[in-house]
Amino acid sequence: MISENSYRRVAKIISPHSLDGKFKIHVISDIAERFEKGETLYLKVKGTYKKYIISNFIPVKNRIALLKLEGIDDRNSAELIGKVEIFIDSVAAESIRSNLDEDSFFYQDLIGCTVLHEKINFGTVIDILESGSVDILIIENENKKQILIPFVDSMVNTSNIENKVIEITPVEGLIDI
Question: Residue 155: which residues within 8 A CB-CB, separation 6 or more?
């Protein structure tokens, strides 16, 4: 049985696009080679990871792209898949970690990080919400309350991520402490 940790999220389907089964997707990976023709992706459909091969990938604008997968040949098939997340296997992800810039990391590296605010434990990163312009960290505090923090350099310091610690300095009024 393959565990949840065996996959790394790289994109999310926004909607079906065209009659031939393409998808409009939001890409979170900065590594374009992940989407080359013939590469393998996994779609998480109804809790199960289904393997697909890329037949075409067209960057559109910013982090939006069009994706065509083998075996999905019409709009109805694309609509049945729905707005699901797209993954690669973690072995493929880790194989290129050494190619990352010194201050780069995988989004998955943020999940589970301890969050400090003014050197005090603020909570834990439980997920990342990919929005149109700025991604959002979802942080859960000890009371199980979720706090949303924009993932921007001016508010999130990831310099200690190798120790699973990040620091936040949100703008005044963003959070109630």
Answer: 149, 168, 169, 170, 171, 174
Cα angle 34-40-43, degrees, rounded to a multiple of 5: 100
3-state secondary structure of 146: strand
Helix (H, G, I), strand (E, B) or coil at 156: strand
Condensed to tens digits (0 to 9), the pLDDT of residues 74-106 reads: 999 999 999 999 999 888 777 777 777 777 777
pTM, to two decimals: 0.69
- Contact yes or no for 85/44 (Cβ under 8 A): yes
Cα–Cα distance for residue pair 128/151, rounded to 1 Å: 9
The dihedral built from the CA positions of residue 159, 162, 165 and 171, taken in this order, carries a sign that is: positive
Per-residue pLDDT tens over the stretch 115-154: 999 999 999 999 888 776 788 899 999 999 999 999 998 9
Torsion sign over Cα 85, 91, 3, 54: positive
Distance CA 41, CA 102 (A): 26
